[in-house]
Amino acid sequence: MPELPEAETIARGLDSVLPGRVIAGVTVLRYDVVKGSAGGFADALRGRQFRSVGRRGKNVVFTFDGESRLVINLGMTGRILSGPGPGPARLATHPAVHFHLADGGCVTYDDIRRFGLLTFIPRAQWRAWSLRLGPEPLARSFTAMVLRKTLSRSRAPIRSLLLDQRKVAGVGNIYAVEALWFARIHPATPANVIGAGAVARLHRSVRKVLRRAIHAGGTTLRNYRNAEGDVGGFSRALHAYGRADKPCFRCRTPIERIVFGGRSAFFCPQCQAASP
Predict the structure, then answer these.
(1) pLDDT mean over 95-102
(2) Residues 218, 97: Cα–Cα separation, whole Å
(3) Is the pLDDT of residue 261 over 90?
(4) β-bridge mates for residue 108, sequence order
(5) Strand order of the sheet with strand 106-111?
(6) Where do you find CATH 3.20.190.10 in the chain?
(7) Coil, strand, or helix at residue 94?
(8) Which one, 27, 157, 244, 255, has the greatest CB density within 10 A?
């Protein structure tokens, strides 16, 4: 599933080509990926001019003139393809929505499994929508103290808390596992028993892992591609995720895999003790 680094990479690519361009029409091929009626969705976007493309959590956010927004949650396998003429439409293997631009270009939302969601948000509703998500982990305001306060209020396993988008926006399983490995914290540790020193390590690790992943263009394990169709390079830099039975890069102890909350977690039983 695309997480913060993948959404950031896609947003940066689109922000370099879309501002100033106008949506002439919208074709919805898969109604289940659009919030509300397909007709209402298309009508709301027709004639809108792109002002910028950014990100909130794992979501790619298109801001238009007038401050209305289109939010795309990529789900498990969503892709956003952009290019001149009908090129993106031809490249799409499972097209769900085409945005036809007034200059002849096209932006296509492509999704094999169709778990993604496209939502048009009027200006007056944006703040309420954004406040449903937790703080951005790369924002200056996201300090170790903020993280410690969040952890102190929950007995949930720390990996589960990091995945809760209401607590921290944008961190998914890959980067939670990696950050916990760097911080030397067992993924099943109750959040509220993690000491101040370990919280500080975790805060640094979350930010470091996310920044490195953005620099590498995200992580491609199966389907993820950026707006130009390129794969992410961070999969070559993973220290724990997907490395079950392989030696830990720190101590050579085999990495172990456990499943809780319906998701696999990977950790070093030597470096990531059950008590931080």
Answers:
(1) 95
(2) 24
(3) no
(4) 81, 98
(5) 23-28, 95-101, 106-111, 78-83
(6) 4-130
(7) coil
(8) 255
DSSP string, 196-237: HHHHHHHHHHHHHHHHHHHHTT-B-SSS---TTSPPPBGGGG
d(CA 167, CA 162): 7
Residues known to be catalytic: 2-3, 58, 263
Minimal CA–CA distance to 90: which of 218, 208, 98?
98
Q: For position 276, what pLDDT does the model report? A: 46
To the question of pTM greater than 0.85 for the whole model, the response is: yes
How far apart CA 252 and CA 270 sit, in angstroms, is 9
pLDDT tens digits, one per residue of 186-213: 999 999 999 999 999 999 999 999 999 9
If one counts every other C-beta atom within 10 angstroms of the C-beta of residue 165, the result is 16
Question: What mean pLDDT is predicted for residues 253-275?
Answer: 92
How distant, in Å, are the alpha carbons of 33, 36, 48, 69, 202 from that of 120? 12, 9, 11, 6, 35
Residues contacting residue 79 through CB under 8 Å, at least 6 positions apart: 92, 109, 110, 111, 223, 224, 225
Architecture of the CATH domain 144-267: Orthogonal Bundle (1.10)
pLDDT tens digits for range 125-169:
999 999 999 999 999 999 999 999 999 999 999 999 999 999 999
